[in-house]
Task: inverse folding
């Protein structure tokens, strides 16, 4: 069962999303929120797999909420739904860990397909079909490539250590043994590394690390 949270200040959009997605046999809409602060509180109370996040909301905005949620729940996937194309908002959202950004008019079947692919780790933004691209602000494709060259500077010392061992082809359990960590802690570090590098797969993280001379 895919547990979803929805953060959206427009009642019609929020309730429509909850109804449509809730009709899916493998989906449970765990909570809805009208602003970022409510979303953070809800995510802490009721863990979810995916949060559909609006960017512009009263009080705490979507980007701030994403950062707060991913700090405590790095495994949660964030998908931005927005009516705007503004570059700076897309950049902030991707830097905060958004897996994808879509316009709100995306058809429900395409949104559900994206959610399932993201959760199955088979989501490759560079290979989006024209059908998805129609509803995806184009700036995010350029931004992802740009972050891959910049985000290495945002990794913590511990994340860099985990990344170097990951480059040796070790599993999470093996990394945990080498670094004297629990496997769950390693999973959290790896999720944070993926988020900061803007990648979905281990091979991509290793490739970027090698390009930067880290392994």
Result:
């Amino acid at each position: 069962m895919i547990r979803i949270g929805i953060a959206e200040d427009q009642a019609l959009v929020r309730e429509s999303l909850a109804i449509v997605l809730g009709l899916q046999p493998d989906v449970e809409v765990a909570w809805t929120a009208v602003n970022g602060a409510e979303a953070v509180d809800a995510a802490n109370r009721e863990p979810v797999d995916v949060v559909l996040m609006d960017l512009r909301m009263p009080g705490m905005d979507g980007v701030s909420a994403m950062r707060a949620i991913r700090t405590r729940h790095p495994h949660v996937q964030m998908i931005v739904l927005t009516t705007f194309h503004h570059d700076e908002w897309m950049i902030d959202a991707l830097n905060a860990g958004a897996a994808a950004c879509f316009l709100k008019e995306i058809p429900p079947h395409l949104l559900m397909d994206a959610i399932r692919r993201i959760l199955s780790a088979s989501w490759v933004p560079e290979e989006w079909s024209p059908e998805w691209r129609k509803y995806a602000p184009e700036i995010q494709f350029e931004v992802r490539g740009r972050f891959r060259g910049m985000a290495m500077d945002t990794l913590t010392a511990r994340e860099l250590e985990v990344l170097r061992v990951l480059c040796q082809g070790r599993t999470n359990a093996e990394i945990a043994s080498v670094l004297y960590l629990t496997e769950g802690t390693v999973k959290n570090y790896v999720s944070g590394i993926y988020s900061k590098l803007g990648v979905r797969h281990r091979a991509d993280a290793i490739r970027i690390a090698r390009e930067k001379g880290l392994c």
